[in-house]
Fold this protein.
Amino acid sequence: MYLQYTMAGETETDRQDSALDRDELVRYSRHILLPQVGEGGQRALKRARVLLVGAGGLGSPAALYLAAAGVGTIGLVDFDTVDLSNLQRQILHGSAGIGGSKLDSARERLRDINPGVHVEPYQTRLSSDNALEIAGGYDLILDGTDNFPTRYLVNDTSVLLGIPNVHGSVYRFEGQASVFGAAGGPCYRCLFREPPPPHLVPSCAEGGVLGVVPGLVGTIQATEAIKIILGLGDTLAGRLLLIDTMSMVFRTIAIRKDPECPACGTREITELIDYEEFCSGGGARERGMAGVSEIEPAQLAQRIARGEQLEIIDVREPYEWQIGHIPGARLVPLGAIPDEIPRLDKKRTIILYCKVGARSLHAAHQVAQAGAADVHNLAGGIVRWIDEVDPSMARY
Ligand SMILES: [Zn+2]
């Protein structure tokens, strides 16, 4: 038996406050027909307050299904605008919304799906200053963020407030989901105590993702949120669901509450902390850290072919260099970058790369801060170089 978190207990006042009118009885008839839901369950959904952090790839399907299901109040936190590159997966938004705020686009779409749902927008980035205040009035949080700082922030907020955190994450063709912070269940820090150092994080800055993968995971998150509200079935509390769409294998692994966990175990974490912002929104704008721009593999190949004098630096480890490297590059492993910086000709065009682009972004940032004028990070690292320029090179 897995852990349960139920909010279906209904008082007479609740019952009156969330009474369903005739249109609602029709709209939700396929729910009400289910004996496990019935009118009482539908009223519980109507009373429920769910906070979605992020109106992106995961938040899109989650918001659509929660609104359609009749969750009475949906809070949406997002600070971003709709970009053309979002539409491959962020199905809450459409072409007409490009350039506008994601919250406006989301509110309009949700209102069309279900005008009975109250949408509470928060046009802001979730931070240690505002998270407790924003999340305080909600029954559960659905985490649709794509970066570690916010993921830890959401986790700690959920633990401090004692409300469940329905977690989801995606990477390329894979996804994960769980329910953290449910009564008696583990939290995200029980699994991953501290955020990894930013330069080791494979983040949204470099990851492609198959558009339907966040669709699957966000829909699973919505399913878990609805089960929690209704007190139905076995939730993913105490389990981590791993989805691999390439093999189409879904596995769950048992995860345990760690008594030493600083959030939910020892309770050392008594207030929220902000972690270094590493990858805020996935857009090219955020990706370019100060003074660093991205270069596409094909652009770099052209510039090499034209015979331009480029300083191409491979910041990987020697064993990776031996597997294969870009012609004309030289090896300076990430750890040796600070020593190399004084020797670099800061007037030259400097291009850095690693395996997938995160370590080299970190290095590029250091080089730019040291005064180099024209610093580029190779988008997607050597992995994309192999895919798009030289498939004959060995992959690893
Ligand atoms: Zn924990």
User: Anything to note?
Assistant: Residues 1 and 76 are 32 Å apart (CA to CA). The longest strand covers residues 165-171. The two ends are 41 Å apart (CA to CA).
